[in-house]
Amino acid sequence: MSDAIDSTEHDLCSRERHASPYATLFRIPGAKSFCVSGAVARLPISMMALGIVLALNHLYDNWTIAGSMSAAYILAVAAVTPFYARMFDRFGQHRVGPVALTVQVVVMLAFAFAALMRVPIPALFALAIAMGATQFSFGALVRTRWAYVLRGTGNGALLNTAYAMEAAIDEVVFILGPILAAFLATSVHPVSQLFVPTAACGVGGAVFFSLRSTVPPVLEPVQVEASASSKTGGADIGGAGTGIPDAAEADRRAAAQRSCTQQASGRGTSQRFSLRRLHRTGAAKPKNVLTYPGIVPLLVVFIVFNMSFTAFDVSMTATMKAAGVEHLLGLQLAMFAVGSCCGAVIFGSRQLKGSHWRHMVVFLALLTVGYVLFRVTMDNFLLLGAMEVLAGLCVSPLFATGNLIVKDIVPARSLTEGLSWVTTAGSVGTSFGSTLAGAVLDASGPHLSMMIPWTVTLCAVPLALFGWWLARRRR
C-alpha cells in the first residue's frame, strides 16, 4: 500500500513538473478571477491618453494642446500612483479599493462629459489633472496578489511566469485599446473613446475588489520585548527584514506568542506585557521604497526609455493622418503590441540565466535597433508593421525584468508600492514623450519626431549599464 501511495505521489509530481507553467498558475484557486477582472480594469491605460489626443486634436486641431493635455493627465497619474500604492499596502486592497474606484469612475465621467460639451481648454486641463489624480495601478495590485498566492509553492520560477504573463496581458490591452479608441473616435464620435475605458474600469474594478480570497493580508513588522527578569530575551515576530510570512508561519508565531503571554502571567505581574505595549515597543515603520539600493537607477531607466512609446504613438498618428488613413491607426499601433505580447509569452516560458540587469541592457539595445528600423520604414506601413512586431518582442520582457528587479530588492510588505513606482516612472516618461513629440510635430513634422524613440532608448542603455554595475558592486 505504501509503495502504491508513493508511486501515485511521484506521478502527480511528475505531471506538475511537466505541465505548462501557465497552466500551473491558473490551477491556483481564485487566480483566474483576479487576473481577468484586473485585465479589464486596466483598459484605461491604453485608451485614455491616446483618447485625449484624438479628442482634443479633433476639437481644436492643435497637436501641442492635445499632447500637453495628455501629458498633464499622465503626470498627474504618476504623481499619485505611489501614494495609492502605500495606502493599499498599509490598509489593504479590500478597504481602499472600493472607495478609490468610485472616485476614479466619477471623475473620468466628468471629464468625458466636459469634452463632449466642449468646455473651455483651461477647464479641460483642470479636469484632466483631476482625472489623473484619481488613477491607481491595477497592474501593481494584480502582481502583488500573484506574489501572495505563490508564496507557498516553493517554485520561484512561477512568479517569473506570472509577471511575464501580466506583461502579456498589458500588451493585449494595448493591442485592443488603440484599435478601439481609433475606431470609436473616427467611426462613432470623437469623444466616445473616453466613455468605454471608464465603463471597463468600473466593471472590472468592482469585480476585482469583490474577490476577497486572494487579497494579501496587511501585516506590519512587530517586535515583542520580554520583561527584564525573563531569561529568554526578546521574541521577534515578523521582524523588519522578513517581509510577509506565510499563513502557517504566522499561525505558529501567534501561538508561540499566546503561550509566552500565558507563561508570563503565571510567573507574576513583572513578566506581563499588554498588546498595547507589544505594538508600542516593537512596531517599525516600513522604509521608503526609494531608499532601497538599486530602485532609483531602475526608475531613471524606466523614465527615459518609456518616452519612446508615446513619442512613437503621437508621431504615427500624425503620419497616418497626413496619409489619409487615420482609420487604420489602431491596427498599425497594435502591431507593436502584438510583438510585445508574443515576447511576453516566450519570456515567461523560459528561464534566462544571469542578472536581470544584464537582460535589461540586452533588451534595450535590441529595442533601439528596432526603433531605427521604424524610422527607415515609416513611409511603408506594411513593412513598418512587420518591424513593429519584431521590435515588440523586447518590450514586455523589459517590463517583466524591471518588476523582477523590484521584487528582488523590496520586501513583500512594500511590494505594491515598489511595483507602483515602476509604473510611475513609466508614466512620467510617457508624458515627456507625448509632450516632446507634439512640439516637434508642430515645429517640423512626423519624420523628425520619429527620431525621438530610438534616441531616448539609446540613452537608456548606459543608464541600465550603470544600474548593472551597482548591482554587481553590492554583491
TrEMBL record:
<keyword id="KW-0812">Transmembrane</keyword>
<feature type="transmembrane region" description="Helical">
    <location>
        <begin position="96"/>
        <end position="117"/>
    </location>
</feature>
<keyword id="KW-0472">Membrane</keyword>
<feature type="transmembrane region" description="Helical">
    <location>
        <begin position="63"/>
        <end position="84"/>
    </location>
</feature>
<dbReference type="GO" id="GO:0005886">
    <property type="term" value="C:plasma membrane"/>
</dbReference>
<dbReference type="InterPro" id="IPR036259">
    <property type="entry name" value="MFS_trans_sf"/>
</dbReference>
<keyword id="KW-1133">Transmembrane helix</keyword>
<feature type="transmembrane region" description="Helical">
    <location>
        <begin position="418"/>
        <end position="439"/>
    </location>
</feature>
<feature type="domain" description="Major facilitator superfamily (MFS) profile">
    <location>
        <begin position="294"/>
        <end position="475"/>
    </location>
</feature>
<feature type="transmembrane region" description="Helical">
    <location>
        <begin position="329"/>
        <end position="348"/>
    </location>
</feature>
<feature type="transmembrane region" description="Helical">
    <location>
        <begin position="123"/>
        <end position="142"/>
    </location>
</feature>
<feature type="transmembrane region" description="Helical">
    <location>
        <begin position="451"/>
        <end position="471"/>
    </location>
</feature>
<dbReference type="InterPro" id="IPR020846">
    <property type="entry name" value="MFS_dom"/>
</dbReference>
<protein>
    <submittedName>
        <fullName>MFS transporter</fullName>
    </submittedName>
</protein>
<feature type="transmembrane region" description="Helical">
    <location>
        <begin position="384"/>
        <end position="406"/>
    </location>
</feature>
<dbReference type="GO" id="GO:0022857">
    <property type="term" value="F:transmembrane transporter activity"/>
</dbReference>
<feature type="transmembrane region" description="Helical">
    <location>
        <begin position="289"/>
        <end position="309"/>
    </location>
</feature>
<dbReference type="InterPro" id="IPR011701">
    <property type="entry name" value="MFS"/>
</dbReference>
<feature type="transmembrane region" description="Helical">
    <location>
        <begin position="360"/>
        <end position="378"/>
    </location>
</feature>
<dbReference type="Pfam" id="PF07690">
    <property type="entry name" value="MFS_1"/>
</dbReference>
<feature type="transmembrane region" description="Helical">
    <location>
        <begin position="34"/>
        <end position="57"/>
    </location>
</feature>
